[in-house]
Amino acid sequence: MPQRITTGYRALVEAAEREVETLSVDQAAARLGADDVVFVDLRDPRELEREGRLPGAFHCPRGMLEFWIDPDSPYHKPVFAEDKAFVF
After folding, report:
1. 64 CB contacts (<8 Å, ≥6 apart)?
2. Would the pLDDT of 1 be above 90?
3. What residues are paired with 58 via a beta bridge?
4. pTM to 2 decimals?
């Protein structure tokens, strides 16, 4: 039986874009070091080894993001429960 997708990728992306604020590089850089902001580095561990880390950023591999953010997940990370803005 063929798979039936009820919500296509365009609708998912549009819904996400309504919920997030997109920052320019300059806007993001201006928030570095702020107490109410957590930078989250989504790169693969091999990329971090090759390219270096963003000082002070929390590392979360992209494939784990939804699991680590969800408080009902057994993989939840407390950093994502903080009352802060997150810059990915």
Report:
1. 75
2. no
3. 40
4. 0.83
